[in-house]
Amino acid sequence: MRYKPQDFVIACDMDDTIEHLLPAWIKWLNEKYGYDVKPEDVTDWRVGLFFPTLTSDEVFAPLHDWEFWKTVEPMWDAVHYIKLLIEEGFPFYIVTSSHPDSILPKFTHVLYKYFPFIDKHNVIIAHKKQMIRCNVLIDDGTHNIVGPYIGILKDTPHNRWFKERDIPNIYRAHNWNQIYDIIHQIIDQ
Predict the structure, then answer these.
(1) Pair type for strands 10-12 and 150-154
(2) How far does Cα 18 stand from its chain's mean position?
(3) What is the DSSP string of 40-84?
(4) Residue-wise pLDDT tens digits, 28-57
(5) In whole angstroms, what is the distance from residue 130 CA to residue 143 CA?
């Protein structure tokens, strides 16, 4: 065994990694402004490109709305596998680059509600995730996944262009079962 679970630090993003932000966000914008955008249509990180008549303030307004965060649901396989990893002894940290205005509603209505087993002291707010010391980072953002750690890229339509096989120590996972298996493959090498 290369690592013991207690010596293998896992850092994990929130949005579209442990919860379904994009589907809720798109639904909110569609209903408010009469669009018909689907989550799979959003193939770029810049959501506003898919709502061309909206201002940046209009696109991002839901993220600052307490009521919006009540509509964001967890990835149920994330709930199961994160709990399992913590029970196995892995130090598990949430690392999010959330806007300061969205932190309290996001944490109240998503993180603390659906993931109560994640210690509140194990939450880090950081825009430059490469500054975080961990063994693995799980994230959907290609700008975060390359760093001084092993990266597990949570597959989404907006990151499908990324060629992870060209970069060492980057894995793509389509679900949390695959993430869990990749972590165990790494520690068992």
Answers:
(1) unpaired
(2) 5
(3) GG--SS-GGGGSTTS-HHHHHGGGG-HHHHTT--B-HHHHHHHHH
(4) 999 999 999 999 999 998 999 999 999 999
(5) 9
